[in-house]
Amino acid sequence: MTKTLKIILRSGKDDAIKRYHPWVFSGAIKKMEGPVFDGARAELFSNKDEYLGCGIYQDATIAVRILAFAPSRPQDFDTTFWEEKLRAAYRLRETVGLTDAPKTSVYRLVHGEGDHLPGLIIDHYNGHLVIQIHSTGLYGFIGPIAEALKTIYGNQLKSIHDKSRETLPASFWKDKEPSYQLFDETGMVEVLENGHRFLVDIREGQKTGFFIDQRENRQLLSYYVRNKKVLNTFCYSGGFSVYALNANATEVHSLDSSARAMSLTEKNMLLNFGKTGKHRSITADAMEYLRQTDEEYEVIILDPPAYAKHQHVKHNAVQGYKRLNMEALKAIAPNGILFTFSCSQVVDMNLFRSTVMAAAILAGRQVRILHQVTQPADHPVNLFHPEGQYLKGLMLVVS
Length: 399
Ligand code: SAH
Prior knowledge:
- This protein has helices at residues 14-18, 79-95, 136-139, 142-153, 215-222, 239-246, 259-273, 286-292, 314-331, 349-363, and strands at 4-9, 23-25, 29-33, 41-45, 51-57, 62-69, 106-111, 120-125, 128-133, 159-162, 188-193, 196-201, 229-233, 251-256, 279-283, 299-302, 336-342, 367-373, 392-398.
- The chain is α/β, with parallel strands linked by helices.
- It has 3 domains: 4-69, PUA domain (Archaeosine Trna-guanine Transglycosylase, Chain: A, domain 4, Roll), CATH 2.30.130; 79-189, RNA methyltransferase domain (HRMD) like (Transcription Regulator spoIIAA, 2-Layer Sandwich); 211-398, Vaccinia Virus protein VP39 (Rossmann fold, 3-Layer(aba) Sandwich).
- Strands 15-14-13-16-17-19-18 form a 7-stranded mixed sheet, with helices on both faces.
- Helix 5 (215-222) runs parallel beside helix 6.
- It starts with a strand and ends with a strand.
- The structure holds S-adenosyl-L-homocysteine.
- Residues 211, 214, 234-237, 239-240, 256-258, 261, 285-286, 303-305 line the site of S-adenosyl-L-homocysteine (SAH).
């Protein structure tokens, strides 16, 4: 059994925990008793010595990530504990029809706070699991987490890969290597999403290798592209492009500023359609391209990376979204469809919609909303942690 760190909170700081908010900020702590180290099992108490829950301690702004709320009081975060938690996550994916979907072999198994597992991401790629841990405290438990995954998936599990190198600070890796390595040298896995084939670059790709959160939005796009000329900006591995061409778009142009992303897109196009004259790859900056292009696009997708990672850069992010959307709104053909996204946590749907409205005013176009979309059910949002709802999208028709 791990030694326990007792944490007593300042008066009033227990309220958020009683409402099941999964974080304890360092400023909320009054006193700590016991072994203080990153990864310590921490028991939380109110100022009146009332047990509130337990989690993992880390010397950081978010000092404790809570894994169990009172009255639950697991004595150890061992394999049995993780098995129960991860099985619950698995069951949810079963409920939403993802664990045995004949045409989809890629889904998110664990979505951090949304699965009551703050700091933990696990994605499933056709039998290969990719773990991404976002706190050094939690990293100490990767062994029992992996053991639990082996039990849950049994012989359906092909490999486990640890992709926490990018999410934990460089200093943490000074004399360490990620625990679970690749199953083969290429690091490529082929998956199916709604019947479309994709190569996922687990080793070098962004995030865990693929933007799983856009699955339903890609499907939605496919209803609007028939006989249309499509521009997919910020295309990464070509998710929206593959759906668009499969749904009989006349032509699809994919754009990303990263040459590596464009090479992935080309591989995926080839995998699905062989050599086709209907696809063009453009390695460029999205904003500059939109500003100078003479092409008449009838559908444009804008899916930029998170412009604001923190609250204090929110204003700049909003300006960025406004300019980008303005350029797309100016460029799009009459009655065109603009599918525009923001994945910045700090920009909520209301702010995003008013930002797009400001862009429409500047572009002088009439705009109506057809769909307001978000992330799919394998990225659940904890009601008490609304920050977890990070993906927002608007499908617009532009007169
Ligand atoms: N739509 C994609 C995910 C987009 S991720 C999908 O469905 O998979 C964001 C992408 O934007 C990354 O591939 C990144 O390389 C690209 N990017 C970042 N800045 C850019 C810029 N200024 N112009 C064009 N692409 C950019």
